[in-house]
Amino acid sequence: MGFGLGWWILVILFFGWSLYFKAMIKKKKLEKEEMMSSGGEQIKAAAAIPRGRSGWPFIGETLDFIACGFTSRPATFMDKRKSLYGKVFKTHILGRPVIVSTDADVNRVVLQNQGNIFVPYYPKSITDLLGESSILQMNGTLQRRVHALIGGFLRSPQLKARMAREIENSVKLTFSGWNHKRTIYLQEETKKITFEALVRMLMSIDPGEDLNFLRREYGEFIKGLICLPIRFPGSRLYKSLKAKERLLEMVRRVVEKRKAAMDKTNEKGTAWTNDAVDVLLRDASECGGEGNQRLPLDFISGNIVEMMIPGEDSVPMAMTLAVKFLSDSPVALSRLVEENMELKRQKGACCEDYAWTDYMSLNFTQNVISETLRMANIINAVWRKALKDVEIKGFFIPKGWCVLASFCSVHMDEENYENPYEFNPWRWEKPGGAAVNSNSFTPFGGGQRLCPGLEISRLEISIFLHHLVTSFRWVAGKDEIVNFPTVKMKRKLPITIFPMDH
Ligand code: HEM
């Protein structure tokens, strides 16, 4: 009996030990596979590859990413993973493995190392629609050159003065159609205001058939920016690409006509209409020679079309979002009205026109704009690809990996902003409070790709807010912000307006 019991104990110990041994081997094997899949051959360095999950085969964690995007809190996707794996983690979304950064310092390094370590790397549908020569995708000296040309043009005081007039006119024209107690859809109305001014700034097209054509085709084109990368007749991507072809054809005609007129007068710099087409054509005519190739006409046409992407939806959406947040924050709205009424009174008393600088010197209005862009922004992240192995803040990013620098997570992190989900424009005026030039505030990106339209956007939004709050009161209908495929209002933000008695 004694022998029998001892025997059974030995057998059980043996099986227990062998099961444990087997489990350990399996665990080690899984860890090794994990490291291999994360960093290819670089097993050693992979020890510091950010942690995370790859999710389901092929779709990865895309469904959760999209589901969070359909809510007003897109940062939830990041927050869930941040709490499990830390501020930088790996995932698999929209068809590719991605390292997501929700860390302001890591994002700064990604933005600053444009070109030498990181290059733009957008989802396939965006890449297909943009084309390789888009400023949003190009790299190296050509990107720097086009960026400098466009940036110089967009930042010039002459353009700001002209845009101020045009936006004022557009705002007044749009407002003239707003009757007492009428319900309007603000998201649609703001688009009317900015599209015309943008097209004039890019290629000086006045209201009429051409403008309507551009509006229609651009609307069709932009719908495919985030969609399945499937290209066959009838698919979303296919329709958008066709719309882009039609847009390009028309813009190409404008560019060619302008070039012919330029060659005819042969007076460089005299007969310019001063828009983005001119700026690029002027460069094409003045540059040349070794190392400074002329910009081909196709390249110019492509860039004008592609510049409508960052230029178009972003500004009207920021205007709409500002009104949404103000509608929910009566105290902030009343301070905004006070500041703008004061300017209106001053201008009225001296019978003066507004200068663009008047709008930019409205401090509280600028704070409202900053707070709006912090809380919701059409570009809530940028996509990059690492050209080489790189280590940032102890995280190893292997060559070839995609990095998503999430702005919305940084903007909504309570380590960076107290009560991040509270709309509080005053946070921007406290000494030591939020600062528009910090790493934690990047609605316009940073580094060499910092948005060249930053100032003109702030100007356009200020003009709109000034005339809105000094001409109308409104009651906003119930609505929510959704963030996928891009930021917009679920019901286009209906508001009932009441013109003010003066
Ligand atoms: C609220 C309005 C706007 C926001 C939030 C915004 C945001 C941004 C961001 C985040 C980037 C960087 C993209 C990256 O790093 O890959 C960018 C780039 C750019 N933006 Fe804007 N933008 C706005 C308005 C405008 C306007 C009005 C224009 C004028 C047409 C414009 C033209 C551009 C261009 C050309 C680039 C590419 C710069 C480059 O890659 O060198 N943006 N924008």
Structure description:
The protein has helices at about 1-40, 60-70, 75-85, 105-110, 125-130, 140-155, 155-175, 185-205, 210-220, 235-265, 275-285, 295-310, 315-325, 330-350, 355-360, 365-375, 405-410, 455-470; strands at about 90-95, 95-100, 120, 185, 380-385, 390, 395, 400-405, 470-475, 480, 490, 495-500. With about 500 residues, it is of the alpha+beta class. The chain has one domain (about 130-500): Cytochrome P450 (Cytochrome p450), CATH 1.10.630.10. The strands form four sheets. Strands 1-2-8-5-3 form a five-stranded mixed beta sheet. Strands 4-12-9 form a three-stranded antiparallel beta sheet. Helix 8 runs antiparallel to helix 12, helix 8 (about 185-205) packs antiparallel against helix 13 and helix 13 crosses helix 16 (about 365-375). The longest helix has about 40 residues, at about 1-40. The chain is globular, with a radius of gyration of 27 Å. The N and C termini lie far apart (about 105 Å). The model is unreliable at about 1-20 and about 25-45 (pLDDT under 50). Bound molecules: protoporphyrin IX containing FE. Protoporphyrin IX containing FE (HEM) binds near residues 150, 314, 318, 378 and 456.
